[in-house]
Amino acid sequence: MNARKYLKQSAYRKIQKTPIEKLTVKDILEEAEVSKQTFYRYYQDKYALANEIYFELTQQGIIEPSQVNNEADWRRMYKQQFACFREHLPFIKHLYTSRETGCTLDFEIQSTIDFDKAYLKRKGADINDPRILFSLEAKDVGGTYAMRDWILRDMDVDDEEMVERFHLIIPQILVPYYE
């Protein structure tokens, strides 16, 4: 097993028990038995490490613009991601408590914007149109904050209802691309 895997395993275990803001790189290194130099060879900071783990658990192989062609596909995609959130809920909750620069909330917003730009471009939208960009950012920032609040409340609304809520926040200009 290589150092990067040890770092990920250690960070995952630590973040399950401790909000990321209270965790130090030193805490991760001690459990992983990896040097500080090695850590910084792979990661800029603890958030970069946490976001890589988050991506692998909740997005990799799930959040793929090329696999989404219609409303049924994006509803399925959300439900798959929600299942991953539930499976790793203590870890996910401790990531979403942070509001530091580079935190998972920032990562999720940017990932969602990147996904939607690729998806909309594939569907023929002019992603350079300022109205489309504004609508996209409003949807993705608002949706990510709503998702964070839902996660921090132990996902108290069932998945189908949450998908429907995401559907409701799609701006009118974007609706035709998501049907």
Feature tags:
179 residues; 69% helix; Arc Repressor Mutant, subunit A; mainly alpha; 10 helices; 0% strand
Summarize the structure in short.
The protein has 179 residues and is an all-alpha fold. It contains 10 helices and no strands.
What does this entry look like structurally?
With 179 residues, the protein is an all-alpha fold. The chain has two domains: 3-45, Homeodomain-like (Arc Repressor Mutant, subunit A), CATH 1.10.10; 52-178, no CATH class. 69% of the residues lie in helices and 0% in strands. The chain contains ten helices and no strands. The protein has helices at 3-17, 25-32, 36-42, 46-58, 71-87, 89-96, 104-122, 130-152, 159-168, 175-178. Helix 1 (3-17) packs across helix 2, helix 1 packs across helix 4 (46-58) and helix 7 (104-122) packs across helix 8 (130-152). The longest helix has 23 residues, at 130-152. The radius of gyration is 17 Å and the shape is elongated. The model has no long low-confidence stretch (mean pLDDT 95).
List the helices and strands and how they pair.
Layout: H1 3-17, H2 25-32, H3 36-42, H4 46-58, H5 71-87, H6 89-96, H7 104-122, H8 130-152, H9 159-168, H10 175-178
Helix pairs in contact: 1-2, 1-4, 1-6, 7-8
Total strands: 0
Structural class: mainly alpha
DSSP strand (E) fraction? under 5%
Q: What's the structural domain tally?
A: 2
Average the pLDDT over all residues and give the rounded result: 95
What level of helicity do the residues show? 55-70%
Give a quick account of the main beta sheet: strands, pairing sense, barrel closure.
none
Task: Determine Rg (CA atoms, Å).
Answer: 17 Å
GO molecular function, one term: DNA binding
Pfam families: TetR_N
Organism: Catenisphaera adipataccumulans
Keywords: DNA-binding
